[in-house]
Amino acid sequence: MFHWLEKHPFFFAVGVFVVIAFAGLIEIVPNFAQASRPVIGTKPTTLLEQAGRDVYIKNSCNACHSQLIRPFKAETDRYGHYSLSGEYAYDRPFLWGSKRTGPDLHRVGNYRTTEWHENHMRDPKSVMPSSIMPGYPWLYTNKTDINTAYATQLTNAQFFGVPYNKPIPMKDGSTAVVKMAGSVAEAHKMALEEAKEVVSRMKDQDVKDAVANGDIPEIVALIAYLNSLK
Amino acid sequence: MENRPLEYDYTVAKMFMVTTIVLGIVGMGIGVFIAFELAFPELNTVFGAGLAEYTNFSRLRPLHTDAVAFGFTLSGIFATWYYVGQRVLKVSMAESKFLMFIGKLQFWLYVIGVAAVVVSLFMGITTSKEYAEFEWPIDIAIVVVWVLWGISIFGLIGIRREKSLYISIWYYIATFLGVAMLYLFNNMEIPTMLATSPAGETGIGAWYHSISMYAGTNDALVQWWYGHNAVAFVFTVPIIAMIYYFLPKESGQAIYSYKLSLLSFWGLMFVYLWAGGHHLLYSTVPDWMQTMGSIFSVILILPSWGSAINMLLTMKGEWQQVAASPLIKFMVLASTFYMFSTLEGPIQAIKSVNAIAHFTDWIVGHVHDGTLGWVGFMIIAALYHMAPRVFKRELYSKSLMAAQFWIQTLGIVLYFTSMWIAGITQGMMWRAHDEFGNLAYSFMDTVDVLHPYYTLRGIGGLLYLIGFLMFAYNIYKTMSARPVEESELQNASPMGA
User: Fold this and answer.
1) Cβ proximity of B142 and B136 under 8 Å
2) Which residue of B has its CA nearest to A146?
């Protein structure tokens, strides 16, 4: 049979394809329907958090930081409750990472504050003297791309049914609603409201002034996102 | 006419040889730079605070991985295809104007694609998925390049004189099909500009931005099904294609066993795709999939070692060639590193070992003994074998080649030993508890301890880069030497054309 296949390239290629596609079919297809159900209390990102997530991706934070707490005592002691599949239900793309040059960030919002991030992102050594993480001073001047974050929210809602403007069940039995803007202009207004909340706890005068003038530096969005990781 | 040997046309092979070398220098150069950034963080701003956004570790890391995987390695795969393909199918590219056009078109689109990737990654335009960072417009360009390569492969097969496909061709076909399937499924994404706001606005935000079709755990599953098998079908399958051609050619020995090559080929095709789950051990993907990933990773030793042993036994009775020829040294050490790496991988895929190894530098070490030792050495060997035949000139310097071999080997050894120690040390420190059950070390403690190993790793990488520059110089001097007139090349292989 093999000798025959080696003289018939078409059937050879079909054979190879069937053999390599087999594992993917068995592994991936059956899991797809059930794995994406959110756990109770999982909310989609707000506009500024989404913009911050985009900043996180733009700077490849995931090259050094994971967002996946494995079910070991050492990990739950260090980072909090181990990660659950449903917590990632709205994560497009997922940001688990594959290397911990720095610590895991899946629940960083539980134990780091806006003030801490503000100092740390500009100069990590100021809070962690022997840190090998570089500073990210450009985040304090680069402007956040609110339009793309808004388009991402819209795409999530329209193509994947992510529940914006809909009641979401919370752990205590109540419901919560994550609002999404109705237009680009409204989106900018909403993002600015969120940004004001974040900068009220920041010290950098230039960042405060920028937000007061209606511009949102990337650091504000990033901190909003990091604070939402709980 | 019928009795004259075929004149093969290496135009496209030569073009891809150039990109192999250029992108190799770029990718490895960035790699060495970011390795030293981890050891000496001041280097992040060495080009000035203003440029730090573009020269810091996190921005450069995807550039390094993509430049070596899709720049250096893929160019090497294309270069060898446009050399090996003609020879084992006994047909010249010159016989088909169409295929020649396709080959050149593939090359130039590839170059444009590479330029787009470099610019976009520097700007921070990325999907964040490892080895699939490119946004949708570049994905489309990549698919076109890939389809053109497919036309080239099957076109050349279509007009072949040798009816039976040689082993190398099996592996090139598998590379084409495997990567096509994986890349398409992992890069399913929706451009965000397609969304409409309730107010009726369209085309909002960056036009090139997109989000993945899959969410969370599913996205991770598809990504590592891709990520792992990109390793399979870029770093393994086509490299085996090369060694099945170049080792017998260079040594004048026939392949040790046809049956072993059959077993290894079909075994590898069937088993490899299951192993992706080992990247997700103890994550939130279903347990049975993690277990399958573990088990099949161990089974994977069989077909991997099958190929490697087949290569080493091909040298049976001819081991004096290893001492005499630096080129044979490269290939024999490549097979050895292949065996080494395909044993190490399954060990790391065992769940209890993975609990320590995952997220640490041990994984980085594993990747690099495979890529530097196996992929890098095999591509270097292939280009060294091709250069005299393609450029019709004697190789510039054999002793330079030998020196390069030893410098690079030392570099690889430094690289993986330092990363083993770094990874296992950090993995053990993360999980250590004191007598009261509290964590024994802060995260910072586990970073401080790595400094000497990061420095050693940087030196190892630097040695490898120096060796690669020697290789580039050697090939450059060969290309630019005076052509040899009509005489038989001294180092032409005993098997002839």
Assistant:
1) no
2) B205
Q: Given an 8 Å threshold on Cβ–Cβ distance, is B58 in contact with A24?
A: no
In angstroms, the separation between the Cα of residue B87 and the nearest Cα of chain A is: 17
Q: Domain boundaries in chain B?
A: 11-191+210-479
Instruction: Give the model's pLDDT for residue B230.
Output: 83
Q: Do B41 and A134 touch (CB under 8 A)?
A: yes
pLDDT of B366 reads 96
The C-alpha of A8 sits at a distance from chain B's nearest C-alpha, in angstroms, of 8
Domain range list for chain A:
2-35, 47-228
B358 vs A: CB within 8 A? yes
Q: Chain B partners of A151 at a C-beta cutoff of 8 Å?
A: 192-193, 195, 204-206, 209
pLDDT at A102 over 80: yes
Q: How confident is the model at residue B495 (pLDDT cuts 50, 70, 90)?
A: very low
Residue of A nearest to B427 (CA): A100
A145 at B interface, C-beta within 8 A: yes
Would the CB atoms of B215 and A36 count as touching at under 8 Å?
yes
Q: A 52-71 residues with CB below 8 A of B?
A: 57-64, 66, 68, 70-71
Show which of residues 148-167 on chain A sit within 8 Å of chain B, judged by CB atoms: 148-152, 154-156, 158-160
Instruction: For domain A47-228, give the CATH number.
Output: 1.10.760.10
Q: What is the mean pLDDT of residues A158-182?
A: 94
**Band of the pLDDT at A27, cuts 50, 70, 90?**
confident
Element (H, E) at A52: helix A47-58
CB contact under 8 A, A70 and B355: yes
Identify the pLDDT of residue B487: 54
Rounded average pLDDT over B26-49: 95
**Do the chains contact at B262 and A2, CB–CB below 8 Å?**
yes
Please check the confidence at residue B496 and state whether its pLDDT lies above 60: no
- For residue range A68-100, list pLDDT tens digits in order: 999 999 999 999 999 999 999 999 999 999 999
Measured between CA atoms, how close is B406 to chain A, in angstroms? 31
Q: Say which range, A28-42, A106-120, B278-292, B435-449, has the weakest mean pLDDT.
A: A28-42
**Closest Cβ opposite residue B284 in set A88, A134, A152:** A88
* Architecture label for domain B11-191+210-479: Up-down Bundle (1.20)
Please give the model's pTM, rounded to 2 decimal places: 0.94
Residue A50 distance to chain B (closest CA, Å): 12
Average pLDDT, chain B: 93
R_g of chain A computed on alpha carbons:
22
* Cα–Cα distances in angstroms (integers) from residue B203 to residues A47, B127, B209, in the given order: 17, 19, 11
Q: Chain-wide mean pLDDT for chain A?
A: 94
Cβ of A155 within 8 Å of Cβ of B130? The answer is no
* Complex ipTM value: 0.93
* Dihedral-angle region of residue A181 (phi above 0 means left; psi in -120 to 50 means alpha; beta otherwise): beta
